[in-house]
Design a protein that fits this description.
globular; 8-stranded parallel beta barrel; 23 strands; 25% helix; 577 residues; alpha/beta
Length: 577
């Protein structure tokens, strides 16, 4: 007979026994480092008007993990970097780290070592023919065959005259750089151009209509170019008393121009050039963008009247005709022995000041905001080999990073090759003049800094905040392929350790990094850079085998922290989950 009471007692005993032998499940592991409970999707911002069409050729980037060597991770950190992968500042213009060629760098297209380095660097935009020389350059002339209306002498700022010293695009001698070889450089290295045409000729030309003659010469170059070049500038620093055409001989001028250049006159002439060049572009079935030269600073009391009135004359006169505006900066005071701290500090303050100034000027004179191009930049610091140093490499990374943050459409560093001048050399590569047995075309430290910075720079800049150390600057990005990049600049003479945290990003299993630091060969301005401990074979430069240099790497489970040596740049990339 079934005993219901006994059945209930049996069930109770069974459950009690089962409970006494049950083991609780193991605790759930916390989310991996960098994961968040909620991932906010990134929102693509509107294109900034100061960038504009410089993003027209934007391309998504795919990150490929480098070969690596396992490296230790610091146990703790003194600073915290927080990256928000959903907070996009801007897409990254391909020409944000361009460069300048010039007419005295020789016919470089046969220099295989240099061509290889430029190929690896990928500046995307290489400007030509270079600075003030643009205003005495006749692109389609044979050597010593200027136009008949180009005077033998030009007027200097003090009113005296000197030989014009014209340069010629069809000069094929070994010491100069021809127009055809410039185009060959672009083709060989996979880059595009930016051409600065000769505005000075519109001033010093002696024909009945020198502006029309100069504009016609520019338009002929557009026709010859035949769609290969999108970006064109009308002149170079034409407000400056060092430029050909700043002052002319009124007795030789036949169209009633003023003796001194002015912004209003330049604006008036700009429209003539732009009209001729755009018509020429239409004839060959292409479209071009034409830039106008702004003065880049609030005038000082000692500036010339041309400088003081340049923008107020140019901007209203040119109206909305310019497609973009051009500024230059050499960041540190002219010809001074600026120290390393001052050099590094200038990258942030000056880049922001430049963009703020341009925005304010266009607003003041009531024209639309347009893209802004920083077509020359470097440092003026001299006397301590600052320009060829690791510190200038750090500065270069910061200038490009700050240009992105502040909405520049492109930048072009001055320049690929210059002249050693005891270390006061803006050249990225040694042209053969550097002492101590340094090989010709040996890259300077800035080359390595920009190479590794771009290697780990994605296609979108995102926000990164720094806590615990005001001497660290951070530039974060994401790749369309899903990974994230980060470059940290430690401006301090003291080492630091940084922990990297993420918002709105699920980090994968591994991260990679390169550490770039200087040597002890020249005080605080080392001519060397060491990348993950590997340095140059000789007295200057960096590791020869930079393209195959293994990254440091660690699993994220060990913590996402990294050492920041004194005065160093650390470029990192993070796998996606």
């Amino acid at each position: 007979m079934f005993n219901f009471f006994s059945f209930i007692i049996g069930i109770a005993i069974f459950l009690a026994c089962k409970k006494s032998t049950h083991k609780d499940p193991p605790p759930v592991s916390p989310p991996p480092a960098g994961d968040t409970l909620v991932i906010n999707p990134p929102v693509e911002p509107a294109v900034a008007p100061t960038i504009g069409f410089f993003l027209d050729d934007w391309q998504p980037k795919t990150f490929t993990a480098p070969a690596f060597a396992e490296a230790p991770v610091p146990a703790n950190a003194t600073a915290t970097i927080t990256i928000d992968a959903s907070a996009i500042i801007t897409k990254v213009p391909r020409g944000i780290a361009g460069n300048n060629s010039n007419l005295w760098m020789t016919q470089i297209v046969t220099e295989n070592a240099l061509m290889n380095h430029i190929n690896q660097l990928k500046p995307h935009i290489i400007r030509f023919p270079g600075g003030s020389i643009s205003d005495i350059f006749f692109w389609n002339a044979e050597k010593n065959s200027p136009p008949a209306d180009a005077p033998a002498q030009v007027v200097k700022a003090d009113g005296s005259k000197e030989a014009a010293g014209y340069w010629y695009g069809k000069n094929n001698e070994s010491w100069t750089f021809s127009v055809n070889n410039y185009y060959q450089l672009l083709q060989t290295t996979g880059n595009t151009g930016m051409i600065t045409i000769n505005y000075g000729y519109a001033r010093y030309g002696t024909s009945a209509d020198p502006v029309a003659a100069a504009a016609h010469l520019a338009a002929d170059w557009v026709r010859f170019d035949n769609g290969r070049t999108k970006y064109w500038e009308i002149g170079n620093e034409n407000f400056g008393d060092w430029e050909a055409g700043y002052r002319i001989d009124p007795a030789l001028n036949k169209d009633g121009q003023s003796e001194y250049a002015s912004g209003q006159l330049y604006g008036k002439h700009f429209k003539v050039f732009a009209d001729s060049m755009r018509k020429a572009a239409q004839e060959v079935g292409t479209a071009i963008k034409i830039g106008a030269v702004l003065y880049d600073h609030h005038p000082e009391s000692w500036n010339t009247n041309t400088v003081k009135t340049w923008n107020e004359g140019l901007i209203p006169e040119a109206g909305n005709e310019p497609d973009f505006y051009v500024v230059h900066s050499y960041y540190t005071p002219y010809n001074q022995q600026t120290n390393a701290s001052q050099v590094l500090a200038s990258a942030g303050t000056e880049t922001k000041r430049l963009m703020d100034f341009v925005r304010q000027q266009l607003q003041t004179y009531k024209v639309a905001q347009k893209p802004v191009a920083l077509t020359e930049w470097n440092i003026f610091a001299v006397g301590l080999k600052q320009q060829v140093s690791h510190i200038n490499g750090m500065h270069g990374v910061m200038v490009v990073g700050e240009a992105l943050k502040n909405g520049f459409g492109m930048t072009a560093r001055w320049n690929l090759s210059n002249g050693y001048d005891d270390g006061n050399d803006h050249g990225m590569f040694n042209n053969g003049e550097e002492p101590d047995g340094v090989p010709k075309w040996n890259p300077r430290p800035v080359f390595y800094h920009l190479y590794f910075f771009q290697k780990f720079l994605g296609d979108r800049l995102v926000t990164a905040s720094v806590g615990g150390n005001t001497q660290i600057d951070a530039y974060a990005s994401t790749f369309t392929s899903g990974q994230a990049g980060l470059t940290l600049v430690n401006k301090s003479t003291t080492a630091s350790r940084a922990e990297i945290k993420f918002n709105n990003y699920r980090i994968g299993n591994r991260f990679y990094w390169y550490i770039l630091s200087g040597g002890n060969d020249n005080g605080e301005f080392s001519r060397k850079v060491f990348v993950n401990g590997q340095g140059p074979a000789g007295a200057a430069g960096g590791p020869p085998a930079y393209t195959s240099l293994k990254a440091y790497s660690a699993e994220t489970a060990r913590g996402v922290r990294v050492e920041l040596p004194p005065r160093s740049v650390v470029c990192l990339a993070f796998d996606k989950k």
